[in-house]
Amino acid sequence: MRGYSEQHAEVYEDVLVSRGKNWAAEAQLVTRLIREACPRAISLLDVACGTGAHLEAFREDFTDVAGVDASRPMLDRAAARLPGVPLHQGDMREFELGRTFDAVTCMFFAVSYMPDTAELEAAVRRMAAHLRPGGVLVAEPWWFPERFIDGYVDGHLVREEHRLISRVTRSVRDGDTTRMEVRIVVAEPSGIREFTEYEIVSLFTLDEYLTAFRAAGCDARFLPGEPNRRGLLVATRR
Ligand SMILES: C[S@@+](CC[C@H](N)C(=O)[O-])C[C@H]1O[C@@H](n2cnc3c(N)ncnc32)[C@H](O)[C@@H]1O
What we know:
The protein has six helices and eleven strands. The two termini are 30 Å apart. A hairpin with an 8-residue loop joins β10 and β11. The chain is an alpha/beta fold. Bound molecules: S-adenosylmethionine. The site of S-adenosylmethionine has 18 residues, from α3.
């Protein structure tokens, strides 16, 4: 099972806030799309929910929310901010909660961690299995192959009163995948620590995503652009 480590979970949100990520605004956009297709949706499952930042915002609009993630350290952070919300440790290709929801979300390209189209289809099938007929599935993909910039480098610095975090990344194309090297340095009065993680993210085509949704019994469309320039896949379960 793939999931974020403790040291990554510890800095995850701080680093992304410094890059301008706004989970509440993203959740508002997704809620609007869900309501367009399913005006009376009240239950929502966030797959690969991470630290629960989207769920915190979804909770304002949906009375019944739950989350799934592979990483215990990420779920621990979600549990701390979402008392009473059911949070399950599980792999998106295999999880079974024994119930359905009006909406299922999978944000920030988590679905694109699937290494090939067979596993992409397995993950989308599991998400669709947790949707009632007419329910809405919203997934944020990674870049499509034609939009990926080989050798892309990026970096951010977080300055806090007693802590400084730098995160630099370099993403290269390796066949049909992106290999992203993520190097994080955390400087505190007690010392400086550094770690490097390698993320492998698939460069699925739009057609491969749409095929996976169709195979899972969902009619999907792609909305380019928001929330992170990579667009959203929005599907309804038949
Ligand atoms: C890029 S983060 C996105 C987290 C959250 N959706 C957000 O927008 O902040 C990816 C998340 O996917 C989780 N993840 C990775 N592989 C997974 C899998 N096979 N099943 C479930 N979760 C997985 C990681 O633990 C991590 O929390």
